[in-house]
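As the next step, I needed to go through one protein, both as residues and as discrete backbone shape codes, included below for the reader:
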Amino acid sequence: MDLRKLKTLIDLVSDSNVTELEITEAEGTVRIVKGSNTGYAQNAGIQTIAVQQAPQSTPIAPTPIAAPAPNEAPIAEVSAPTHSVKSPMVGSFYRAASPGAKSFVEIGDVVKVGDTVCIIEAMKILNEIEADRAGTVTQILCENGQAVEYGQPMIVIA
């Protein structure tokens, strides 16, 4: 099943009163259960995905910055807001399509929305992860082959 289609189904279950959704296609069956603490499981070829609602974050007021003293030079550097590309699933993080191949992104690369930034391997399926925001890659937080969790930040884009 296509990663985008799977993500759409997860969002559909998260935003509705539906507690369980099962889809059968030629590639197999996917079952999405809302509010389950079972995590990921595989039973007789059925992939079960637990959808948990993320707690709503409270906006944080910006910290006031004191004006520099008259004899101090003003600070010219202003940090740009950053965005983390988070893992949409549990799996193994890979920077390139195959061992020895060129990495999808390096620190300093400019990416646009839809550019592939990494691959997550889950249950022997390679899922391309795309940038959901345009900007410059400032950090790569995961090592090649590292296990990642759902929602774990992998790449920082400024």
Observations:
- Residues 5 and 38 are 22 Å apart (CA to CA).
